[in-house]
Design a protein that fits this description.
The protein is an alpha+beta fold. It contains 5 helices and 7 strands.
Length: 249
Amino acid sequence: MSDHAAAFPLSSDAESTTPEREALLEAGRLSSLGELVRGFAHEINNPLFGMLGLVELLLSEIDAGTKSHDRLLLVQQSGLEIKRITRTLLAYARAESDFMEAVSLEDVARETVDLVQCTSAGKSVEIREHYREEPLTVFGSRARLGQVFLSLLVNAQQALPAGGVVTIRLERDGDWAVTSVTDSGEGVDPGARPHMFQPFWTTKRGGTGLGLAVGLEIARAHGGDLIALSSVAGGASFVLRLPIDEASP
């Protein structure tokens, strides 16, 4: 295994600054939210399984091709979609943030894209995925890396209020795994560039200003970096660089 950091404390000093304390509170809020999501998903799944079982029974008793059969198929499809969404939320909420392991970046990317596509906010945005045939594996926290991917995808979505295209691409550059998330929006405001990774700085109404700042800290805790570039096509591109775990097969 690679010798990388095994924890991501923001600060434990009594003299912590106000931003550090606020970030800790935000982390605690997100942890509580994860607990609620797990409970919420289980509460949905219990009656959902009963409903799907009943629909399957009714489908077996009704002739195929009839209006009643077709309507039940629509109910079944809707139920299966709810099941897929709750399964995606549960998988994301179950990840333990401090557990370090060999992590497939493609798996993290696919899971995060699935999560984003489950939300209504993502319906007007097309997400294009480009992955390597060979896996890219890093050593770190699956949950924390997923947090970075989610932040970048949500950030790209918010840059496309009228819809557009977000492209996520995984590549290898020597000993580095390189992930880029690019949107087809208006690009990075030059005046905003110096402040983008500062905690609590945001141009978004209702935003916390923590996404990119925390993403940068997570990247550095994994021995990597997170930078912002202007896309050739005119949008914004965020690039996450992480050291490849050479000990993995």
